[in-house]
Amino acid sequence: MAEYLASIFGTEKDKVNCSFYFKIGACRHGDRCSRLHNKPTFSQEVFTELQEKYGEIEEMNVCDNLGDHLVGNVYVKFRREEDAERAVAELNNRWFNGQAVHAELSPVTDFRESCCRQYEMGECTRGGFCNFMHLRPISRNLRRQLYGRRPRRRSPPRSHMGHHPRERHRRHFPDHRHGRF
Q1: Where are the transmembrane segments (predicted)?
Q2: What is the pLDDT of residues 82-104, one digit of tens each?
Q3: Who has the most CB within 10 Å: 36, 75, 102, 109?
């Protein structure tokens, strides 16, 4: 039975999921459609698009802060520097959620020091206006789906930092918190 359901998923025979939305990402019935519109999460959508267009992604961080300098920031670490450079060049001509995308290369290769330790422990008293990054978590299943079964890379110790610049760019999405999460 599961094999049959998998074979008809997203087709017109699928009585649960909307085949039109599955094929083209839109449906004339909108929210009134009797079938489900399976929308990818923001993280999944951005990760998939960037990896397909520009190259392998080692890490992606989505900020959940509200301060002007961090709101909507997405940090993507590509495996190859050339991929990051091409992504920055092309993304600066794009729009997202009605706002121009501002992408730039970043010299930071290890964001562990940029992340709010109190937030990670559920204790940050500064809330969304904290000057350290509050990373939007992604589920274990989504992490496995996006990154595969490869182990998470650990950054080199701080003493080795700065000797080998890594490729990273920052993609800025104003008001991403109102997007499809």
Answers
A1: none
A2: 999 999 999 998 877 667 889 99
A3: 75
Place of tokens 């802060």: 65
Reading the block at residue 6, the tokens are 């998998």
- Which burial class, exposed, middle or buried, applies to 55 when counting CB atoms under 10 A from its CB (0-12, 13-18, 19+)? middle
Per-residue DSSP letters for 68-106?
Answer: TTTTTEEEEEESSHHHHHHHHHHHTT-EETTEE-EEEE-
Q: Token pair for residue 14?
A: 């699928």
The one-letter amino acid at 96: F
- Choose among 174, 45, 159: nearest CA to 98: 174
C-beta of residue 118 within 8 angstroms of C-beta of residue 124: yes
Polymer length in residues for the chain = 181
Calpha distance 156→14 (Å, rounded): 48
pLDDT for res 87: 95
Three-state DSSP at 36 gives strand
H-helix or E-strand spanning residue 39: none
The C-alpha R_g of the chain, in whole angstroms, comes to: 19
End-to-end CA distance of the chain: 31
Indicate the pLDDT class of residue 133, thresholds 50, 70 and 90: very high
